[in-house]
Every structure is written in structure tokens, then in C-alpha cells.
Amino acid sequence: MKKHIGRFSVYIRPFSYCLDLFIINSLAYALLLQVLNGIYYHVFLSFSWIVISWNVGFYEVYRFTKVSEIFEKIVKQYLVFIIINFAYIGYFIKFSEPSIIVKFITLATIFIAFCKLFIYYFLRKIRVVFGGNFRKVVIVGSETGTKQLSDFFNENPNYGYKLVKTFNINNNRKDIINQCFEFVLRNKIDEIYCVLNDLTTTDIDNFIDFTDNNLKTLKFIPGDNEVQVRNFKQVYYGYIPIFSLRNIPLDILENKIIKRIFDLLFSIFVIVVVLSWLTPLLAILIKIESRGPIFFIQKRNGLNYHEFDCYKFRSMAINEKAHLEQVSKNDPRITKIGKIIRKTSIDELPQFFNVFLGHMSVVGPRPHMVSHTEMYAKKVDKFMVRHFIKPGITGLAQTKGYRGEVETEKDIINRVKYDIYYLENWSLILDVKIVFMTVINAIKGEEKAY
Which of the four, 251, 278, 354, 398, has the lowest number of CB atoms within 10 Å? Predict the structure, then answer.
């Protein structure tokens, strides 16, 4: 399973945001008249820059992005930013010296553009000189079909892709594909590129299943026929069109930030307003009834299959099977206070500490015990796709009745279906709706809450 991919983009974008906002506000303070240097205008500068950048895609610069596209983003950002500033200053501050504003915004944009291009070329140099920030890839297809992309990877190491092997499809296509799968797992390959024209529909489905179940990235070199009938997300490597199969909204930095802010605010509220007084009260009740710790801590699998400690209020007597067996109806291990807190889902509230620490989200696929994750990964197709995003305290599957004990194979299959739907259709509105439905279900009481 994929444990970690060495890539820096998760740190680069937040750093770029902070650097650009620092440049804008510093230049505003140094160049603009005192009448413009109020706190409200600086807040407006920062907020408007971020909102415009989200809409323009200013920070959506990837290793395969062309320099011409970067300049296009810079020009768009500059023009919209200057128009918005004139609108704000003219309406709220009644300032009528446009040359000062033009000078400030032009200089700020030049400085930011310089930093942006410096980071872009610096990362390219690092990839070539130090071999860092590389993604290991393989290509599958005919010799003619793979040649163009193979040449691109070999001739452009600054893009950060290391072509490890090319698998040429011939008459023994089934054996070649199986060899590819074994090679990918054995050599910890990050991405697989397939030539669509050289694969059958069955072959494509096999690659999709393999990459989904092993947390690998699958991309396609398009052919004329398949492009018309399949729903792909398109990017360009140089002039070569590349198609990605799965679109995950939470892969976009802006969406990650929005969801993280929501998680932090929600978790802080619950910790301060609820857990601050509920924890000592439950600690007394739990200790009175049975010996053992107040919290039950269990290893579970989260984002990218990483293990983390999941916190709950202890609802069972101490037993050796707590980390191996799910709770079932009328389970003798459950204490009296445990029945109450499990029925109302109060036992899950300490997981807001997991949310605060960044291990979990308020909403997402529910994490399973490590032993159960390994079992379901072998039995249930696409089970591992759930680990492309952070697990949640509640999720869409739980609001649809698939919470608690997995009694039949249908339970876990439907849970995975809802989790994948959530993963591919995330929005803040959907998160709020799921939280609301979870609260309603907890108040009403759920049949499988035991």
C-alpha cells in the first residue's frame, strides 16, 4: 500500500500564499499614503487577492504547467486586482490619485511574479541536480503509442517524473499487465500511464481496479475513440494531452483550506463548549463502573493509509478482543454507561481532538480498525479509495444507515459506494448537510447504534 509520496506541493502553496500577502501588505505600507494604510484596506487587499487567485487559478501551477500559462495567470490576476482596488478605493475611501495605486499594484505584481517564477525554476533545478520531488512512473502500451511520452519524461527531468519502465503490450497482454502490477507494487511506483488505443475495455477496467485498490495514480494517453465516450480530466505535458480518471475536489488546495477551517472551528467549538465539562463527568461515571482508562485508543487507517490513534470514551470493560472484534448487538463487553454513550454517539466525541490535530475531519469516510481494513481491502473492490481523503467522525454512509457493525457484505459494499460518492462530490454544503443529518439521527436514535 502507498504510505508516502515525496512531494513538496503541500508546503509550497501555503508558503506562496504567505509570501505574496507579505509582499502586498509590505509594499502597501511603504508606498501608499497614510489615508490608505488603514487596517480595513489591508484586510481588503489580502482577502481580495485570495478570492481573485482562487477564481483565476493563480496558484494552480504544477510541474507540467507551461511558463506561458504562468504569465497568463499573472496578467489576469494583475488586471482583476487593479480593477477591484479602484472600485474599493473610489467607493469607500474617495481617493482620487490613480497613479499611486497603479504604481503599488504593478510593483507588487512584479515582485510576486519574480518569486513565482523563481520557485518554479528552482524546483525544476532541484529535481535535476538533487533528484528530489520525483514521481516514479511506468508506461503501458505499444512501442509507437508510448514513444512520445517516454521521450518527454527522459528529455525533461526537470518536470519531476522518473520513467522507471515501459511495458510494451504484445500478444501476451494479460501476462504483461500482470507483470506491470507486480512491478508497480514491488518498486513502489507512484503513477501508471496507459495508451488507451492499445487497451481493451476489460484491460482499462483492470487498471482502474488495481490503482483504486492500491492507492496508485492512473493516467491515460488518449486515443481518438475513447476520448469521446469517457469522462476524463485533461492536462498537457508539454504538448502531449494526458487524461486523469478520478476527479477529487479535496485535491485542490483551496478546498483543503476551506475544509480545514471548517474542521478547526467545529472541533474547537465542541472541545470548549461540550468536552470541557462532559469529559470529567463521564470520567467519574466510567471509573465508578469499571476499572481501566477513561479513553479507548485504537489504531486506525487514515489519509493515504497512514495509521493514527483514534480516541473514544471507553464504553466496554477491558478485554483482549477490543482491537480485533467489532461490537455486536447485546455485546456483553459493553458497560451500562457504555450503552448510553454508544446509543447517543457520545463515545465518539473525543475524536474532535483527532480533528483538531489533523488526523481526521468532521465529515469523511469512517475509519476502520487496522485488522478490518486489511481484511476489507482484500474482499471489497475499491475499498482503498476511501483513503484518498481524511477519515471523518461521521460520513454520508452513516447518515444513510450504514453505521456500526458490518453484518453482511452488502453493508460494507454500500458503505464504500457512499464514501466514493462523497469523495468525488465533496462540497462544504454537503458537509453541513451531513452534520445536520447526523445530529437529527442521534436525537431520533438509530437502530444500529449499539
Answer: 251
